[in-house]
Amino acid sequence: MTTSPTIWELLAPAPPGWGGVLLTGAGSTVLISLGAYLLGIGIGLLGATGKLKGSRPVVVLLDVYTTAVRAIPELILIIGLYYAGTDGINRLLAVLGLPSIEINGFFAAVMVLGIVQGAYMTEVLRGAILAIPIGQIEAASAFGMRPWLRFRRVVLPALMPNALPGMANLWMSVTKDSALIAVVGYQELALATRLAAGNTKHYFLFFFAAALIYLAITLASNLLFTGLERHFRRGQPLAA
Amino acid sequence: MDFSWISAYWSLIVAGAVQTVLLLTISVVFGFLLAIGLALAQVIGPRWLRWFAKGYCTAFRGTPLLIQLWLFYYGVGSFLPMIPGLRESLLWPIVREGFFFAAVSFTLNYAAYEAEVLRGALLAVPKGELEAGRAFGMRPFTLLYRIWLPRAIRIALPTIGGEVVLQLKATPLAFTVTVMDLYAVAYKIRQDTLLVYEPLVVVTVFYVCLTLLITRAFRFVERQVPIRR
Q1: Is the confidence at residue B166, as pLDDT, over 60?
Q2: Which domain, by its residues, includes B85?
Q3: What CATH number has the domain bearing residue A160?
Q4: Using the beta-carbon criterion (under 8 Å), do B169 and A73 form an inter-chain contact?
Q5: DSSP 8-state class, residue B81
Q6: Could you tell me which chain B residue has the CA closest to the CA of A84?
Q7: How many domains does one find in chain B?
Q8: What Cα–Cα distance (Å) separates residue B105 from each residue in B23, B25, B99, B100?
Q9: Nearest-Cα residue of chain B relative to residue A202
C-alpha cells in the first residue's frame, strides 16, 4: 500500500490525476449548453412569431408545448424525450427500410435540452417583442421594409434589451440543467466527476472541484451578459 | 399504451407521492426560514455577514442542484461515519438515509433562491410604513415581524409560488441518491414491467396535479390579502 495521493496529484491534468477528465467534461458541458441554447433561440424565435402572428391552431399547439414543458419536471422531460427521441428516429428509419442507428449522445443531449429551452425562450422573446412600441414596427412597414429586413433592422435591435435579462437566466439554467444529462449516461462534467470520485473514493474533493468549475462558468457568463446588456442598451437613458 | 399495472403498483405510487410531498414541504418550510435570515443579513447585516450571505446565495445559485446533492450524499456522507459516536447515536438511522441528504441539500438550495426573492421584497416595502412603525415607538424586532416581514412576504408571494413549483420539479433528482420518491417509483415500474413511457406518463400526471394544487393554493392565499395598487 503506497501513501495516498495528494490533492494536486488527484487533480493533475495528466492521466494518473483526474483533472483532465474533469476539464474535458466541463468542455462538453459548455458545448452541450451552447448547442441547446442556440437551438432554443431558434425554436424560441419561431415559437414567438407563431404565438403572435400564427393562426388559431398554431397558437393552441404552441401554448400546449410551452405549458407542458414548463409544468413537467426537467428530469422526467429529459429522460422521456431522450428515449422517445431515439426510439422515434429508429422507428422512422425502420419504416423507411433503413438499419437502425445508435444516436450520438451529444446530439441527443443538445436536442433534448434545446426543446426544453425553446419553450422558455418562446415566452421570453414573446414578451420582449410585445414590449416594442408598435409604432416603430409600423413605421418600418410604412417605409416599405420587407419582413426580414424589418426584423433585422428594427425588431431585433429593439427586442434585445428587453430579452437579455431573461435570456441570461436561461443560459444559466441550461448550463445547470445540462448536469441532468448525466442521468441518461452522456459524459459531461457531472458524470465525469462521478466517475473520478468513484474511482479514487475522494468524493468530497471531486464534487467540490466540479462545483467550483460550474461556479466559474456561471460567473464568467455573468460578466459576458453584463457586457452584452451594456452594448445593447447603448443610447438608452440610464435610469429606465 | 398499457395501464393494467396501475392497480398492482398503486400503493407504491402513493408512497412515492408522499415522499415527494414530504421532501417538498421540508425543503420549502426550512428553506424559507433560512431564507429570511439570509435576506435580512444581506439587507441590514454587518458587512462580514452581508458578504457571507451574498457568497452563499451566489455559490448555491451558481452550481447545479445535482452536484450539490452528490457533494452532500457522497462527499459529506463519506465523512459522517468518522464522527465519533455518531454511528452509535439515535440519529444514525436518519443520517445514513439518502432522504436526509436530499432534504438538506434541497433546503439549502431553496434557501439561496428564496433569499434573493425576499431581499428584493424587503427593499420594496415602502419606507413610509417602516417610518410610521418607528414613529409609533416600535422596537426593531416588533417592527420586523409586525410590518416589515409581512409586507415583504405579501409582495413576494407570487414569486414564492413560482419558486415552490420550481422546487417541486427539482425533487425527482432525489432518486439518484436512493430516495423512493414518485420518480424512483416510475423507474422501478419501468424496470419491472419493461414499459418505457406509461409509468412516466402516470407520474407526470401526478406532478402536473401537484403543480396545479400549489398554484391554486397560492392564488387563494393571495386573494385573502389583496394588494392595493
Answers
A1: yes
A2: 9-224
A3: 1.10.3720.10
A4: yes
A5: G
A6: B197
A7: 1
A8: 11, 13, 10, 9
A9: B75
